[in-house]
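Minutes, project check-in

Agenda point 3 was the complex the collaborators sent over. CS summarized: two entities, 546 residues total, and the question is how they sit relative to each other. Sequences were read into the notes so everyone works from the same version.
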Amino acid sequence: MTDVCAIDELVNHKSRNKMPLLSINGVSKSYETRRGDNVLAIGEVNLQLAEQEFVSLIGPSGCGKSTLLHVASGLLRPTTGQVLVRGESRPIRAEEFGMVFQDAVLFPWLTIRQNIEMPAQVLRIPKHVYRQRSTQLIELVGLANFGDMYPRELSGGMQQRASIARSLIHDPELLFMDEPFGAVDAITREALNIELQRIRTVARKSVLFVTHSIAEAVFLSDRVVVMSSRPSQIRSVIDIDLPAERGPELIESPEFDSIVRKIHRELGRHGH
Amino acid sequence: MVTNSVTANRRENLLDSAVTMSLSFCLLVVIIIIWQIVTTFGVLPAYLLPTPAATAQAIWHDLIDPQFWSGQLLQTLYVVLVGFVIAAVMGILIGPLLIVHPLVERSVYPFVVAFQAMPKIAMAPLILVWFGYGHTSKFLITALVAFFPVVVNVIAGLKAGDERQLILMRALRAGWWTRMIRVRIPNALPYIFAGLDIAAVFAVIGAVVAEFLGSSNGLGSLVIIRQTNVDTPGLFSVLFFLAAMGSLLHFVIDAVAKKFTFWSQSADTKVAKR
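CS then shared the predicted structure for the full assembly.
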């Protein structure tokens, strides 16, 4: 009896590991316009995200990358196809993912700490659990002395760090990041990239990341998915063969440069 | 460093308010001087425009008259407060119901707009016919006049705020109630307080009109009595006390609003289009 159980568990464990964390299978999404026409935002996308993998979606603006993120997070229903979570056909649960937007989208009436703890309260995580985590996360994103301040007292870059901490408070396995550094200046952006790289190494999360910046995508990702304009489809997938531990010095290396150029060519191939 | 700048800020604010207060005082002095000149040189006869001294005397006379307080001022204040509270509670309760569902909103809103377009004051005689010459009518007229600024601002406020705050809540699979408590109501607070501020002024108007029509006490009825007696300084005195009442309500609401909407940078400007 115990043996059977043990084998069962072993099999389950194995299949669990083999299954991609998230599979987007033949997903398309069309909208109805005011005039009643159907507009295809995404046409047939297939994409797998393995555990602890960092995948960037890159492509021209308005190509439906954000729509794909919304479908993947269960906020939008796909028109065709389905999203599998660990091989099961079900919407992803709130506990399983965190979300970061282009702007921090903090609540101005809450302090930084209260903002970071908010998802944990909504998900009814016990206070002694989330209080400890929020303290660690505030430290991790470098806001140690700012927990009791209000969002408007912080710079845009600091607010975005807080929103990253908020997305991690319930310890999800997966992060959806929708151009998280699109609204900060170039210098802050580079600093935040290096920081996100560090946070990700510490926190061991899977990330689906939407960006316009090729360098950012290359610096952060295990794989970069190049998308075409509407209806958006996957044009090519590029594996980034760079060491897992990446520091600022990597940006100046010739390997980094050659991958950036390769993606640049990929994006420009059909013009847009 | 931080505390230093805070104290510096506070000092600057104090200085600022000292400057504004002295400017306001200067303006008051200028107005009184012009007023005195106009009355001294007989540009207007005294029964149209009493002298500042006569007006001050009338105000003082009312101020020390216990009958004025118990029979008039406090009566009106009582009507204003009860009417205002009814309007505030109803507005805050009914506002959310109107936008519970887009279908409800679309079907009910035309009625809200039509009702709002009608001068509520014109309904006062009808309410007196329905409810008689008692406190009920006065409360209802006051509440009716003050209700719309509240409900319109509650609706506008509940729809305000960053749409992505709601997307975030949906990503957390938060239900309607949680979204309401955690996002919609906090976002609505600056609007609600702006609505309450307008409602307080409207409540004073409503109460005075109600007392015009059918009352033997209150500042509204006193205005009619003094008009009949051509007691112009007395009329000025009543206006002074009505203005003081409105200002007092405004400052109380403003103080409460500051406690709850300290985070909103433009709380004062958040007024729904009416």
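Noted in discussion: Chain A has a mean pLDDT of 86.
Follow-up: revisit at the next meeting once the mutant set is ready.
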